[in-house]
Amino acid sequence: MQQVTNRGEGRPPHALGTDELGIIVGSLYDISNRARRAVAGDPVEPAGLRVLVGVQSLGAPRPSELAQELQLDLSVISRHVRALTEAGHLTTTPDPDDKRAQRISLTDAGRDAIRKVVENRRSAIGSVLASWPAEDKTRLTELLRQLADDLAELNR
Question: What is the rounded average pLDDT of the residues 51-73?
Fold first, then answer.
């Protein structure tokens, strides 16, 4: 990997490395954080969003299934599920196969929260990309999709 210029602000240049991989990792981190801060009004914090999206992806998981999917401790999942249930984003019901276990489901408010966060990210990123040439946007899309797909292969 070759040396590239690091324009990451607010982080020491050595924090993630000054080589291409360090710049890539830092840039992905910066993109996520800056897009989140660019548009106010997210109805849930990032950790809560991760739980909501996990529930959406799995359908109606047990807390243990969600913990495994998100690679988090069950106690962490339990705290998030409790808070998101109190906020009206999730509901829990007894598992029909095992009355001792619970199933977690999104409420309409939970689906709306995910939708609102996605709209906020699209707005922030869309406003920046609006001035980019179409070829650059297409190439960025292709490369990000390739990176996501290749990383998904590591988890199989």
Answer: 97
